[in-house]
Amino acid sequence: MRNQLFATAAVAAFFALTGAAAQAQTVGSVGAGYSRAEVDTGLGDGDLDVFSADGSVAFDAGSLRGAVDGSVANFDGDGGDATNWSVTGHLNTGFNGGLAGGFVGVTTNDEVTVWGVGGEAQFNVAPQTTLYGQIGYGQSDDLADADLWAGRAELRYFISDNFKVQGSAGYTNIDTNFGDLDTWNIGADAEYQFASTPWSVTAGYEHGEIDDANLESDTFKVGVRYSFGGTLRDRDQAGASLGSVNNLFGGALGQSVIAAFGQ
C-alpha cells in the first residue's frame, strides 16, 4: 500500500511539473511502446510482454535548466504481472556545446522501491554527434538492503535533425546483504520523425547480463512518439533526452528483475 500511494503521488507530481512547465517555452515528448523480453535464468527460458508509456519535458528554471521524465510499464509474464512506475528530475547548466548537472529519481511497484541520485553531462563531440554520460548511486531496502553503483553512456548520431541512431552501454554493481552482483547492458536504438509532423517511430534492442546470478536477457522494442518544441535534435540539445533512473540501474534487465519481485 505504501508503494502504491507513493507511485500515485509521484505520477501526480510529474504531471503537475509538466503542466507548470508547459506555461513556458518547453521541449519534450510523450510516447508509448511495446517490448518483448526473452530472459534466460540458467534453469530455463521465459518471456515478458512489456507495455509502456513515458514522457519528458525540459524547461527554463531561472538561470538553470530543469527537466522531468516519467514512465509506467506493465510486465506480463508466466509468473504474473507487475507495473513499474518511475520519475526522475534533472537540474543542469549549459556550456558551449553541452550541459552538466544532477538528477534524483525513483522506480517503484507494489513490493519494491529503488531510489537514485547522481550526476550527468552531455557534449557535442561533432556537429551531428552527442556523447551523454551518467553516474549514480541507488538504494533499496526491499532488495536485501541493496546499494547500487552505476554508470551509463550513450552516443547519439543525427543522420538528420529528425533521424537519430544511438548506441548505449551501462554497468551496475549491486551490494546486498547476501553478496555482490555485477550487471551490464548494451543496446542500440533508432528514432525517425516524419517530415512536417510531430510524430515519430522508434525501435531498439538491448542485451543485459547479471554474471553472478547466471541471468541474461534480450529485449526488442518498438514504439511511437509525439514531440513538441522542435526536432529530435532540438530535444537532444535542450536536455529533454537525459537518462532516467530506471535506465541507469540495469536497463531493461534491471527493470524486469524489479518487476519480478513485484509479482
UniProtKB/TrEMBL annotation:
Keywords recorded for this protein, A-Z: Signal
Gene3D superfamilies: Porin
Signal peptide (residue range): 1-24
Domain Outer membrane protein beta-barrel: 8-228
Signal keyword on record: yes
The UniProt record lists the keyword Disulfide bond: no
Protein's UniProt name: Outer membrane protein beta-barrel domain-containing protein
Organism (species): Phenylobacterium koreense
